[in-house]
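Working notes for the structural subgroup meeting. M.R. asked for a predicted model of this chain before we commit to crystallization trials. I am recording the input and output together here so anyone reviewing the notebook later can reproduce the run.

Input as submitted:
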Amino acid sequence: MSTSAQSRADLVRHTGYEFALTTVLLFAVVSLVRWLALPGSPLAITDPHALFAVAGVAVAALIAALMYSPPGRASGGHLHPGVTVFLWACGLFPRRAVLPYIAAQLAGSVAGTALAGGVWGEPVRQIGHAAVHPAAGTGPVELFLIEGGALAAVFVAVTLVMARPALRGLIPAVIGVGVGVVIATLGTVTGASINPARAFGPALLSGHHEHFWNYMIAPLVAPALVGLAHRALTPRGTPKASPSEA
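Returned structure, recorded in C-alpha cell form:
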C-alpha cells in the first residue's frame, strides 16, 4: 500500500473511531439526563446544583475513560470539534483531517442521541432529547462569554500539561476533570454544553434551537484562540505533544 493510501486508510479508521466514541458519549449523556432529571424517575435528583454536580462527576469519568480506551488512543480521542480545532491551531493536527473529524463527531452526536431515544423511548422525548438550554435571563452575549471562557480555561490547563513530558499521560484526565468542573459549577447558568457535539444531536432531534449557534460557535472559538496563542508562545524547536500521545 502506498503512503498516501495508508494515510487515507488511517484517516477513515480514525474518523470511524471518533464517530463511535462520540456516539457512546451522547448515548451516555442523554441516558444520564433521562434517569437523573426526568421527574418520576427512581434516580431523579430534584436539586439542580446536586444534579449538575453528579452529572459533572459522571461525565468527567466517561470522557477520560473514552480517551484512554484503545479507539480513543488511536484517533486521539477528540470527541469534541473544539479539541480538533485546538490541535490544528497548535500545529499538531493535519488540516485535511479537521473537517472529517468534525463531521464524524457531529454524526456521532446525532447517532448517540437517536440511540438513546430508541432505547428509552418516551422518557427521552419528555426531556427534549436532553437539549441544552441556559437559565432564564442568561443573554446570548453572557452565554457566549461564559461558555467560551470556561472552555478556554480547560484548554489552558491542557497546554500547561502538554508542556511537561512527565505529565502528558494525564491529559485525558485533565480534560475530563476540567469538563466535569464546568458542568458542576456552570450547569445551572449556561447548561454547560461546552461541546458542539453535546448540543448538536439533541437540538436537531428535539427541535429546540434556542441559543443553538452560541452552543456551536463559542466552543470552537475559545480552543482556536488558545491553540493559536500556545503555538505563538512555544519556542521553535520545542518538542510538542498532543492529547493523542497520552
